[in-house]
Amino acid sequence: MISIVYEVGLYRRLLAETVRKGDIVVEIGPHTGLSTLGYAGKAKLVIAIDKSPEAEESFKPICKEHRNVRFLREDVRGFDALAKVVKIAPKCDILAVDIGGGRYSDTVYKVWGSWSGALKPRHSIIRSRTLAEFLQRAEIKDDSVKKKFKDNGWLSEWGRATPYTLRRQLGEFKNYVDITKSIKDE
Ligand SMILES: C[S@@+](CC[C@H](N)C(=O)[O-])C[C@H]1O[C@@H](n2cnc3c(N)ncnc32)[C@H](O)[C@@H]1O
User: Fold this and answer.
1) Domain ranges of the chain
2) Which of 65, 78, 80 is nearest to 33 (CA)?
3) Is residue 99 lining ligand 1, measured as CB closer than 6 Å?
4) Which residue, by CA, sits nearest to atom 6 of ligand 1?
C-alpha cells in the first residue's frame, strides 16, 4: 500500500499502527525521533536517515535505549545514502518519508520513487501536502494506463528508466552480508 498524509500527528499515528512486530523500517526524515519512538519497540530493525545535526543528537539516546535503531546522518537525495542503507538491509517492510510535508513535492517524489524501487517495501507512508493535493485533483485520461496493481509500497514501473549502471550497482549490494539476520527477534 502507498499512503499519503499531511498532518504530522496522523503521520506518526499511521506509522505506529502500520509497523508489525519484526518489521524492518526505513524512516527518512525522523528529525528528533517522535515518529520513530511510536513503533521502535515493535520493529526488528529501524534505519533512520536525516541530514540535520539536531536529528543526530536526538538519536544518540534513542539508539542507546533501542538497540535495533540505527541512525545515519545523510542527505537522502544522494545515491550514497541509499547505497549505505541497502548494505545494511537490502529490503524493508515499511518505508516512511517525511522530509518536510509542505513543499518540494518533486524532491519527495524522486526520493520516495528511487528508495522504494530499491527497497521494495510492503507499505510506504509519505508525508506531503502537495502530493496529496495532486492525487486529489488529478484524473487519468488514458485507458492504456494499468488500473490494478499489486498491493505493495513501490511502483511497478520503477526501474524501467533506471540507467543500467545504477541497476547493476544495486544488484551488487545483494552480495553483501545481510546483517539483519544477526539481529534477534524479540
Ligand atoms: C518535518 S521534519 C520530520 C518530522 C518527523 N517525521 C516527526 O514526526 O517529528 C523533516 C526532517 O527531514 C529532514 N530532511 C529534509 N531534507 C532532507 C534530506 N534531503 N536528506 C535527509 N533529511 C532531510 C530534516 O532535516 C528534518 O529533520
Assistant:
1) 2-180
2) 65
3) yes
4) 30
**Residue 45 predicted with pLDDT over 90:** yes
Each as own residue / partner, the long-range contacts of residues 170-177 (CB below 8 Å, 24 or more positions apart, any chain) are 170/86, 170/118, 173/83, 173/86, 173/87, 173/90, 174/90, 176/87, 176/90
CB atoms within 10 A of CB 90: 18
* Average pLDDT for 75-80: 88
Residue nearest to atom 11 of ligand 1 (CA): 29
| CA–centroid distance, residue 144 to ligand 1 (Å) | 37
Q: Give the ligand 1 atom nearest the CA of 29.
A: 12
CATH class of domain segment(s) 2-180: alpha beta
Q: Are 44 and 20 in contact, with CB atoms under 8 Å apart?
A: no
**Measured CA distances, 93 to 39, 47, 65, 102, 163 (Å):** 13, 12, 22, 25, 25
CB of residue 76 inside a 6 A radius of ligand 1: yes
Q: Which atom from ligand 1 is nearest to the alpha carbon of 111?
A: 19
Determine the average pLDDT of the residues in 12-24: 98
pLDDT tens digits, 81-130: 998 999 999 999 999 999 987 767 889 998 999 899 889 999 999 999 99
Q: What is the pLDDT of residue 98?
A: 96
Q: Which atom of ligand 1 is nearest to the CA of 11?
A: 8
